[in-house]
Amino acid sequence: MTSSVTVRVPAKVNLQLSVGPLRDDGYHDLVNVFHAVSLFDEVTASEAETLTVRVEGDLADQVPVDGDNLAIRAARALASRAGRAYGAELVIRKSIPVAGGMAGGSADAAAALVACDRLWGLGLSLEDLSDIAADLGSDVPFALLGGTAVGVGRGEVLTPLPVSGTFHWVFALADGGLSTPTVYSECDRLREAAGERAAWPALSEPLAAALRDGDPQGLGKALANDLQQAAIMLRRSLLRTLDEGREQGALGALVSGSGPTCAFLAESAEHALDLSVALRSVCRATVSAYGPVPGAVLV
């Protein structure tokens, strides 16, 4: 066993989020194309008698440090799997937006699994960790895997997708967050009001081809999110942000996941820089990143 372990873990953007019918368990069947981007949190696990968590960084006051913290829940689930009452002090250094549709909490949970597995000398496989991750939340298994992958079921059953080259992104960060369950409920409400029935979701062939071919123009045209209209209804300012990005030449624009972060695909790193500056007039802050990148890794 070692005395301290640090794991770096990426944010994600959903390139396709197709929401199918509501299931008996309260979840929706999804086709969810995850893409890991170079915006990272770090989680350090150190030896301790009990399980505790603290958060560092500008976003620290937005993250719970009690039993609602997903990293603590991950560590507890791992200890339960091992059959022992392990302890650890978890320190989360936040850069991924909180409640921003980029799976920051899920990323921290994945990092805690990897860090505590190494700290406690358990030596579990990625498959074993992924099984624990799936019970914690639909996005947690992808944070372990990284890269680009399609998730089905609740999004937790993953298949990696082939990707050529690197894609450049700008993320427009909004004030406050949006509750994922609230956005899904709004999506259901809008469909019911329109008399629409949710179609069975399928992977977009144009999107898969654009990823495989390294075609940013094609990818920009294929980006899709069934939750976008619901997020806009709950946060009308997102529409102005999306419109501004398109006017500034973004190849594609969409709400990331359940929002309220908006994602813009740029032609190049230089274009991403220009786009990032231009978008600051319509959002709280912007950040540039590229993808795909690996999932949770020891540093």
TrEMBL record:
The keyword Kinase applies. Pfam families: GHMP_kinases_C, GHMP_kinases_N. One of its GO terms (molecular function) is 4-(cytidine 5'-diphospho)-2-C-methyl-D-erythritol kinase activity. It catalyses: 4-CDP-2-C-methyl-D-erythritol + ATP = 4-CDP-2-C-methyl-D-erythritol 2-phosphate + ADP + H(+). GO terms for biological process: isopentenyl diphosphate biosynthetic process, methylerythritol 4-phosphate pathway; terpenoid biosynthetic process. Keywords: ATP-binding, Isoprene biosynthesis, Kinase, Nucleotide-binding, Transferase. Residues 208-283 form the GHMP kinase C-terminal domain. The keyword RNA-binding does not apply. Pathway: Isoprenoid biosynthesis; isopentenyl diphosphate biosynthesis via DXP pathway; isopentenyl diphosphate from 1-deoxy-D-xylulose 5-phosphate: step 3/6. Its EC number is 2.7.1.148. The active site is at 12, 139. Residues 69-147 form the GHMP kinase N-terminal domain. It is an enzyme of class 2 (transferase). This is 4-diphosphocytidyl-2-C-methyl-D-erythritol kinase.
